[in-house]
Design goal:
The chain has helices at residues 6-16, 21-28, 32-39, 48-57, 62-68, 74-97, 120-134, and strands spanning 112-113, 116-117. The longest helix is centred in the middle third of the chain and has 24 residues, at 74-97. α4 (48-57) packs across α5 (62-68). The chain starts with 5 loop residues before the first helix and ends with a helix. It has seven helices and two strands; from the N terminus they run ααααααββα. It has 136 residues and is mostly helical. A two-stranded antiparallel sheet has the order 1-2.
């Protein structure tokens, strides 16, 4: 996806979001004339700063705009994106496998349940309840 398709990419994303050129100009503080000229292929490659504003205005990833404008190699982008996803998946998988030790209730660690932080007293009560529950 090089610059030759950036004009089409920008127009497609803007129409997809149902935003007029004037509205996009207002949101991004990029002139409507400039946006129109970009979409018609009449302007040179926009700067990364302009791309960032357009991406934010259209609620799209900045990197996608950088690829579309030819600043980032598409193959390299896909490779890095896949690597990030693999790392995120691996970390999520590790987090799921990590055991939770209730022995830690007596420690100074923070315990949270449904966005409520346990006080020291509440942790002690919970520890007592668990001990009673596990007694035969």
């Amino acid at each position: 996806m090089g610059f030759s398709t950036f004009n089409k990419y920008l127009k497609e994303k803007r129409i997809e979001k149902g935003i007029s050129i004037r509205k996009l100009a207002e949101i991004t503080n990029v002139s409507a004339m400039y946006i129109s000229e970009l979409e018609r292929g009449k302007r040179d490659k926009p700067s990364p700063e302009i791309l960032n504003r357009l991406a934010k205005g259209l609620d799209e990833p900045h990197e996608d705009f950088m690829v579309a404008a030819g600043y980032i190699d598409p193959d390299e982008y896909v490779r890095r994106k896949n690597e990030r996803e693999d790392i995120e998946y691996s970390l999520a998988e590790q987090e799921q496998e990590k055991p939770i030790y209730l022995d830690d209730l007596g420690s100074n660690r923070t315990f949270i349940y449904q966005d409520k932080v346990f006080t020291k007293e509440e942790k002690a009560k919970l520890e007592s309840f668990i001990k009673m529950f596990l007694m035969d």
